[in-house]
């Protein structure tokens, strides 16, 4: 077993988790612009140096924490059918967007992206990109099974799948009724040409 070099920082997982929780709570309560490294450190019960051992800056910290939170919630499932995969994927999307903390973080993160192109690019590459890769893999499996046309426009299809849920839950702040998911899956299947 390799030994940690003398003087090297050892990142303790429980400290990283406390910091992660603090970042998410501060983002939900204070927003991107008002979040401070000092407040995160205080909330996590650590010194600011513990944050800087993990991330070089506030934007890097926020991006890393929100990406970890978001990408791990993308449904990477293979139920054997497009209908089943869509249902699992869309349910995971609903759960992500309605998470008690994240539902308060996302609108502010989007607004910050409008003000700051670097934030928008960081969000697109670290969160949107990996989540879309999971969705694309689902669609490619359905194409391989013959459930979708081989010439499916994958970019458009991914937009069609996520946009109604985002619009309803984040923009309109409308509830998802008990049958919403089943109705949406049927619409999506028709829209994709399944």
From TrEMBL:
PANTHER family: HTH-TYPE TRANSCRIPTIONAL REGULATOR RUTR, TETR-FAMILY TRANSCRIPTIONAL REGULATOR
Keywords attached to this entry: DNA-binding, Transcription, Transcription regulation
Organism: Amycolatopsis mediterranei (strain S699) (Nocardia mediterranei)
Transcription regulation as UniProt keyword: yes
Ranges of residues in domain HTH tetR-type: 13-73
InterPro entries (alphabetical): Homeodomain-like_sf, HTH-type_TetR-like_transc_reg, HTH_TetR, Tet_transcr_reg_TetR-rel_C_sf, TetR_C
Listed GO MF terms: DNA-binding transcription factor activity; transcription cis-regulatory region binding
Pfam families tied to this protein: TetR_C_11, TetR_N
Protein name per its UniProtKB record: TetR family transcriptional regulator
Superkingdom of origin organism: Bacteria
Residue spans binding DNA: 36-55
